[in-house]
Amino acid sequence: MELKEYVDRSHEPILSLDVIKKAEEIEKLAHSGREKMKGY
């Protein structure tokens, strides 16, 4: 939801660096979660 808020606040057609960094952070967390779930 936080990423969606960043994107919604940006009225520019190009994503800001903050939005891109936040998306990468979420992707890393998702990957980490998937790896942990595979171990169970």
Give the structure's gist in a few sentences.
The chain is mainly α and 40 residues long. The chain has one domain (2-38).
Q: What share of residues is helical?
A: over 70%
Coarse morphology: elongated
Distance between the termini: 27 Å
Number of helices: 2
Record field, number of beta strands? 0
Oligomer: single chain
**Uncertain ranges:** none
User: Could you describe the largest sheet, including whether it forms a barrel?
Assistant: none
Write down the Rg.
Answer: 13 Å
List the main descriptive attributes of the protein structure presented here:
single chain; 40 residues; mainly alpha; elongated
Overview of this structure, please?
- The chain has 40 residues and is mainly alpha-helical.
- The chain has one domain.
- 75% of the residues lie in helices and 0% in strands.
- It contains two helices and no strands.
- The chain has helices at 2-9, 17-38.
- It starts with a helix and ends with a helix.
Topology record:
Elements: H1 2-9, H2 17-38
